[in-house]
Write a structure and sequence with these properties.
- The protein has two domains: 167 residues, Alpha-Beta Barrel (TIM Barrel); 117 residues, TIM Barrel.
- The protein is α/β, with parallel strands linked by helices.
- The two termini are 37 Å apart.
- The strands form three sheets. An eight-stranded parallel beta barrel has the order 3-4-5-8-9-10-11-12, surrounded by four helices.
- The protein binds NADP nicotinamide-adenine-dinucleotide phosphate (NAP).
- NADP nicotinamide-adenine-dinucleotide phosphate binds next to β12.
- This is Aldo/keto reductase.
- InterPro entries: AKR, AKR_Detox_Biosynth, NAD(P)_OxRdtase_dom_sf, NADP_OxRdtase_dom.
């Protein structure tokens, strides 16, 4: 498995296991433990969480099934979690909102550690930019969790380059990644400055919903029908599956992209692992881009 270095004390596996769907998967505790062990065996050692996944349940499901049963697995994995989304009803609130105050981040950090069954995560991300946040306060919170040893590294998710620059300007530690939607479904972040910004900072990106949340396989929209036609032809050429081609489309990018899988199916996660060895030509990369956008570059 290829590793992606984010800092002196953090390397992620290029394929990251995402835990957003573990509550919906209805896996038993033993089945979830078995899936995590299979991932570790495949070299998928990085695991992505957030407090809000599964309506605030996924971190605890993982902690109960994995780390409270097999605490020795903790040192074999890199845990990522996030902070700063408040779902409706959580504090009696009517609407979802983003909150990156110091109080909220420190509280969410402690709750995540408790639920996951660990004393630290390897990476804490601000989940989404909070338009009401004072960046000095958010930076103070991030430095505090690192000083306390509760998070070894910090980063962001869904941040524009300018938002990252602003937050970084208040921080004495580096933001080590930006976790963004990047896929053959959503190609926009390749062209709006997000990738350029990552290169400028010398940091890798993490791609969420790399299979477009499954739309690439199921949707009958013209865009996805067009994409499937091109992906199938390229997959046949490489004697592989369309899932592997979709992941490879991200992995061949020199900015260094770690893709977070969403499936709870080990065979489907294996397709992502296979893709780390798959080379795509410039022509194939552009054929997929063109199929996604519906037009050729000028
Ligand atoms: N930072 C953020 O704001 C953010 C936002 C969203 C997600 N995330 C992270 O990204 C992770 C992945 O997101 P995602 O779940 O949307 O990822 P995804 O991999 O794009 O989509 C997963 C969906 O695709 C389906 N799928 C996978 N392979 C398939 C195949 N061969 N045929 C048909 N369907 C297939 C899965 O179904 P099966 O389960 O049946 O295989 C699942 O429903 C999450 O777990 C989370 O950790 C982060």
């Amino acid at each position: 498995m290829k590793k992606i270095k984010l800092s002196e004390n953090l390397e992620l596996s290029q394929v990251v296991m995402g835990c957003m769907r573990i509550a919906d998967s209805n896996l038993t505790e033993n089945e979830l433990l078995d899936l995590v062990e299979k991932c570790l065996d495949m070299g998928v050692t990085s695991i992505d969480h957030a407090p809000v996944y599964g309506g605030y349940t996924c971190e605890k499901i993982f902690g109960d099934a994995v780390l409270r049963k097999r605490p020795e697995l903790r040192d074999k994995m890199q845990l990522i979690t996030k902070a700063g989304i408040v779902c409706p009803g959580h504090y009696g609130n009517k609407t979802i909102y983003y909150k990156s105050t110091k109080e909220e981040i420190l509280k969410e950090m402690d709750e995540s550690l408790e639920k996951l069954g660990t004393d630290h995560v390897d990476l804490l991300l601000i989940h989404r930019p909070d338009p009401l946040a004072d960046p000095a306060e958010t930076a103070d919170a991030l430095e505090t969790v690192v000083k306390q040893g509760k998070a070894l590294n910090v980063g962001v998710s869904n941040f524009l380059p300018s938002q990252m620059t602003m937050l970084q300007s208040y921080l004495n530690i580096p933001l080590v990644t930006n976790q963004m939607e990047l896929s053959v479904k959503n190609t926009e972040n390749f062209f709006n400055g997000v990738v350029d910004d990552a290169f400028t900072r010398r940091i890798p990106l993490m791609a969420w919903s790399p299979l477009g949340g499954g739309d690439v396989f199921k949707s009958t929209d013209e865009k996805f029908v067009r994409l499937r036609t091109v992906l199938t032809a390229i997959a046949e050429e490489h004697k592989t599956t369309i899932d592997a081609v979709i992941y490879a489309w991200l992995f061949v990018h020199p900015v260094r992209i770690a893709a977070i899988t969403g499936t709870m199916n080990a065979d489907r996660i294996q397709k992502a692992v296979d893709a780390t060895e798959l080379e795509l030509s410039y022509d194939e990369w552009y054929q997929i881009l063109e199929a996604s956008r519906g037009y050729a570059v000028p």
